[in-house]
């Protein structure tokens, strides 16, 4: 039996190796995918994957793999429209999408601020972020996106550490319909209920942890 | 313990109104369907006075929204007050504190005594939080009561204000269906509450509350009634989309949620589910405790 099992394991390794090698997340991140149109991620998302705030290029490091792969699939399908990312995602095959998503999810990210909902927020921005405005059916951002915008599970991505420009762009994308890939349309109504000033302010709130007033 | 348990039992049995065996209800009186638009507006946070009273309001608010972390000795599961009382206890049709506080103290037929608001909150801790209620004169109970009192500023006492409780959702004429409920759950609830009702945590703390299992409300909580859960769900869920489910969907998904095991009813009579059913559940709205579903006895309890 021993020789046989060795043979089996050996052939499994041989079978598994080429496909694992073909979609190497780290390589895609640093050098791009097999199709030259799939450019390296780090060019826009930074060598550490934490994004480039000044340009509004989002943080990818530490985002959930399931969320990232869904976004790439959605860029392909058009339910999330973005001129740069659409052709790029279309140049990645499914295995590459899985590999790069898994790689990015493991990249280290700065922890979200340890903000709790305990302190009554009198500042209207903090109030919106922590508690929402139920007269307009807006839940508090952190009720789905977690304390300090940490992100929750695969469907509610982190807001902490995202450039303000990116957060504003996403909220506006839901408002104008260019982004419609939110599960159960959970974001679109929230975004539409917000004012321009609130979009800007709440984006700044999560982009700049120092501005968060409520502390444990 | 010996002295504590009987008093818990008395508290627990206290809310009977419509029926002699009804247990602790979320409300002192039956809440009808929506009849009048809510008018009452609780005071703004900016109106909290900067004095000893205001400080207590803030403390009560903190306990209300972060109960499990701040009162681990009193909360035996993964829930906060604000999970069932949305918008920090302010939201109409979400059992707002301003709809409850002015209804107490209230006489309760079953224990034949007048119950204070603090005693009503103790019921929440015993059942909805599956824990050990703090003493009525404890600093925490005072803080929670002060917060509720403050939210009720200028509300009339002893008057059923529009927007209180969870409005009744009439039972569909063909009842409810677990299969349909499971489908609603998978499509609209699981994204937050998990495929097995387990909720979701960040860094060890629940962000989205568990709906069944060891960290959810126990078999004695008002929410274990399918009718009560249907009312809560219809008017509050999915978060940010109140009223989006039909009455039928609300009942179906409430039945699906409440057919799952959760911590035992702390009033368990002589270790017998059947005796507990007869005493506390037989006339308590629509519930599955002590009944068989697909050949499995419901109400066996789970965890702790």
UniProtKB/TrEMBL annotation, chain A:
<keyword id="KW-0408">Iron</keyword>
<feature type="binding site" description="axial binding residue">
    <location>
        <position position="145"/>
    </location>
    <ligand>
        <name>heme c 2</name>
    </ligand>
</feature>
<dbReference type="Pfam" id="PF00034">
    <property type="entry name" value="Cytochrom_C"/>
</dbReference>
<feature type="binding site" description="axial binding residue">
    <location>
        <position position="85"/>
    </location>
    <ligand>
        <name>heme c 1</name>
    </ligand>
</feature>
<feature type="domain" description="Cytochrome c">
    <location>
        <begin position="127"/>
        <end position="210"/>
    </location>
</feature>
<dbReference type="InterPro" id="IPR024167">
    <property type="entry name" value="Cytochrome_c4-like"/>
</dbReference>
<feature type="binding site" description="covalent">
    <location>
        <position position="44"/>
    </location>
    <ligand>
        <name>heme c 1</name>
    </ligand>
</feature>
<keyword id="KW-0732">Signal</keyword>
<feature type="binding site" description="axial binding residue">
    <location>
        <position position="45"/>
    </location>
    <ligand>
        <name>heme c 1</name>
    </ligand>
</feature>
<dbReference type="GO" id="GO:0005506">
    <property type="term" value="F:iron ion binding"/>
</dbReference>
<dbReference type="GO" id="GO:0020037">
    <property type="term" value="F:heme binding"/>
</dbReference>
<dbReference type="InterPro" id="IPR009056">
    <property type="entry name" value="Cyt_c-like_dom"/>
</dbReference>
<feature type="binding site" description="axial binding residue">
    <location>
        <position position="187"/>
    </location>
    <ligand>
        <name>heme c 2</name>
    </ligand>
</feature>
<feature type="signal peptide">
    <location>
        <begin position="1"/>
        <end position="22"/>
    </location>
</feature>
<feature type="binding site" description="covalent">
    <location>
        <position position="141"/>
    </location>
    <ligand>
        <name>heme c 2</name>
    </ligand>
</feature>
<dbReference type="GO" id="GO:0009055">
    <property type="term" value="F:electron transfer activity"/>
</dbReference>
<keyword id="KW-0479">Metal-binding</keyword>
<feature type="domain" description="Cytochrome c">
    <location>
        <begin position="20"/>
        <end position="108"/>
    </location>
</feature>
<feature type="binding site" description="covalent">
    <location>
        <position position="144"/>
    </location>
    <ligand>
        <name>heme c 2</name>
    </ligand>
</feature>
<keyword id="KW-0349">Heme</keyword>
<protein>
    <submittedName>
        <fullName>C-type cytochrome</fullName>
    </submittedName>
</protein>
<dbReference type="GO" id="GO:0042597">
    <property type="term" value="C:periplasmic space"/>
</dbReference>
From TrEMBL, chain B:
<dbReference type="InterPro" id="IPR036909">
    <property type="entry name" value="Cyt_c-like_dom_sf"/>
</dbReference>
<dbReference type="Pfam" id="PF13442">
    <property type="entry name" value="Cytochrome_CBB3"/>
</dbReference>
<keyword id="KW-0349">Heme</keyword>
<keyword id="KW-0732">Signal</keyword>
<dbReference type="GO" id="GO:0009055">
    <property type="term" value="F:electron transfer activity"/>
</dbReference>
<dbReference type="InterPro" id="IPR051459">
    <property type="entry name" value="Cytochrome_c-type_DH"/>
</dbReference>
<feature type="signal peptide">
    <location>
        <begin position="1"/>
        <end position="18"/>
    </location>
</feature>
<protein>
    <submittedName>
        <fullName>Thiosulfate dehydrogenase</fullName>
    </submittedName>
</protein>
<keyword id="KW-0408">Iron</keyword>
<dbReference type="InterPro" id="IPR009056">
    <property type="entry name" value="Cyt_c-like_dom"/>
</dbReference>
<feature type="domain" description="Cytochrome c">
    <location>
        <begin position="176"/>
        <end position="261"/>
    </location>
</feature>
<dbReference type="Pfam" id="PF21342">
    <property type="entry name" value="SoxA-TsdA_cyt-c"/>
</dbReference>
<keyword id="KW-0479">Metal-binding</keyword>
<dbReference type="GO" id="GO:0046872">
    <property type="term" value="F:metal ion binding"/>
</dbReference>
<dbReference type="GO" id="GO:0020037">
    <property type="term" value="F:heme binding"/>
</dbReference>
């Amino acid at each position: 039996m021993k020789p046989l099992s060795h043979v089996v394991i050996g052939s499994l390794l041989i079978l598994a190796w080429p496909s694992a090698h073909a979609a190497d997340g780290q390589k895609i991140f640093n050098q791009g995918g097999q199709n030259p149109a799939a450019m390296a991620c780090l060019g826009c998302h930074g060598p550490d994957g934490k994004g480039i705030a000044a340009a509004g290029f989002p943080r990818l490091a530490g985002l959930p793999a399931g969320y990232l792969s869904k976004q790439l699939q959605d860029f392909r399908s058009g339910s999330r429209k973005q001129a740069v990312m659409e052709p790029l995602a279309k140049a990645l095959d499914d295995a590459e999408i899985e590999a790069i998503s898994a790689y990015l999810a493991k990249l280290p990210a700065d922890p979200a601020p340890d903000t709790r909902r305990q302190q009554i927020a009198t500042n209207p921005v903090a109030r919106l972020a922590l508690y929402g405005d139920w007269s307009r059916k807006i839940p508090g951002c952190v009720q789905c996106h977690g304390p300090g915008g940490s992100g929750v599970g695969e469907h509610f991505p982190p807001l902490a550490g995202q450039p303000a420009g990116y957060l504003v762009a996403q909220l506006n994308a839901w408002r104008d319909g260019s982004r419609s890939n939110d599960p159960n349309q959970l974001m679109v109504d929230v975004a539409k209920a917000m004012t321009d000033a609130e979009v800007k302010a709440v984006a700044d709130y999560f982009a700049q942890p120092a501005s968060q007033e409520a502390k444990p | 313990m010996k002295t504590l348990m009987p008093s818990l039992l008395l508290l627990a049995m206290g809310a009977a109104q419509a029926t002699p065996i009804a247990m602790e209800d979320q409300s002192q009186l039956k809440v009808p369907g929506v009849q009048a638009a809510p008018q009452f507006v609780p005071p703004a946070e900016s109106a909290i006075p900067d004095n000893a009273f205001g400080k207590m309001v803030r403390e009560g608010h903190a306990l209300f929204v972060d109960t499990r972390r701040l009162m681990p000795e009193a909360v035996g599961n993964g829930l906060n007050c604000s999970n069932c009382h949305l918008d920090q206890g302010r939201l109409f049709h979400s059992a707002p504190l301003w709809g409850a506080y002015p209804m107490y103290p209230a006489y309760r037929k079953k224990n034949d005594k007048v119950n204070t608001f603090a005693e009503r909150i103790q019921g929440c801790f015993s059942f909805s939080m599956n824990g050990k209620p703090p003493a009525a004169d404890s600093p925490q109970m005072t803080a929670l009561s002060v917060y509720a009192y403050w939210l009720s500023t200028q509300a009339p006492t002893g008057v059923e204000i529009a927007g209180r409780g969870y409005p009744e959702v009439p039972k569909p004429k063909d009842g409810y269906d677990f299969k349909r409920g499971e489908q609603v759950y998978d499509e609209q609830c699981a994204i937050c509450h998990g495929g097995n009702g387990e909720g979701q945590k960040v860094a060890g703390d629940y962000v989205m509350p568990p709906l069944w299992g060891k960290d959810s409300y126990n078999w004695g909580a008002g929410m274990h009634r399918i009718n009560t859960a249907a009312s809560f769900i219809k008017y509050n869920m999915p978060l940010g989309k109140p009223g989006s489910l039909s009455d039928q969907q609300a009942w179906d998904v409430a039945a699906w949620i409440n057919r799952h095991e959760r911590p035992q009813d702390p009033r368990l009579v002589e270790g017998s589910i059947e005796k507990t059913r007869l005493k506390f559940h037989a006339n308590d709205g629509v519930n599955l405790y002590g009944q068989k579903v697909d050949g499995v006895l419901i109400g066996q309890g789970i965890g702790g």
